[in-house]
Amino acid sequence: MNFELFRKIGLTDGEIKTYLALLKLGESTVGPIGKESKVSKSKLYDILDKLIDKGLIGHIIKNGTRRYTANDPKMILEYLDRKTDQLKETRNEAQKLILGLSVQRAALGPKKFAEIYEGFHGFKTIREELLCSMKKGDELLVLGAPKMANLKWEAWLLEFHKKREELGIRMRILFTSDCRTYGEKRKHFKRTRVRYLPKHIQSTNWIDIFNDVFLCVIIQEPQTIVIRDSSLAGSMRQYFDMLWGISHE
Asked: Using CB atoms within 10 A of its CB, is residue 148 exposed (0-12), middle (13-18) or buried (19+)?
């Protein structure tokens, strides 16, 4: 039996063993259930109550004794549907919370220090946050986009571009010269312009410029450094424009 799938559904090991024991035994009292499931009696009553709450088992009183039985396995799907509805409700509540927290964070004013985000999840989260801070018609600049990034994260990067297009954000990308396959894919996005750095300019990392925010990605780690400073972002924008002028279509 696939225990891992039951765990993904949201059952503990004790609940899984107890549920499977009841499926095998049919209607049963606590003693045989404990023997079949190998779950201690001290935990079994609590587990049975939780399975009843989840709608996976039921019970009846017969001759003064409580007897348990597993419900139709289709109830697993109903349980998942309830969990899905609860998650949607929680997500809606979280969105309201995030809105309030974002307003509170913005009230602190512009930051002029480095923020460091570890791992791919950190990079993905901050890049999406910065994208959503831009307005329709704004332009995101990407400098030195290397092949290694596409090899590792191409699926997510394409999703990022789709979201950017939906938001109406323009983009110019300066790829390294070995990235033409990936660059040509980006040209299919109507708000995207692509050029390639000269062959002698190589990079294993890259830079993003989101309006007044400068972002640098160290791909090997990965590690993302963010500096929210309009002066630095403006300087990097000028360097980008200079390289754009000497780059190739």
From this structure: middle
* 55-80: pLDDT as tens digits: 999 988 888 889 999 998 888 998 99
If asked whether residues 133 and 72 sit together in one domain, one would say no
Q: What is the pLDDT of residue 92?
A: 86
List phi, psi (to 5°) of 216: -125, 130
| Burial class of 116 by CB neighbour count within 10 A (0 to 12, 13 to 18, 19+) | exposed
Strand (E) or helix (H) holding 184: helix 180-186
By residue range, what is the domain housing residue 48? 3-76
Helix (H) or strand (E) holding 176: none
Predicted confidence at residue 131, as pLDDT, reads 93
> Residue 217 forms beta bridges with which residues?
206, 224
Q: Are residues 58 and 173 in the same domain?
A: no
Query: Both 41 and 115 in a single domain?
Result: no
Q: Judging by beta carbons within 10 Å of its beta carbon (0-12, 13-18, 19+), is residue 185 exposed, middle or buried?
A: middle
> Against a cut of 0.90, is the pTM above it?
no
Q: Which amino acid is at 217?
A: V
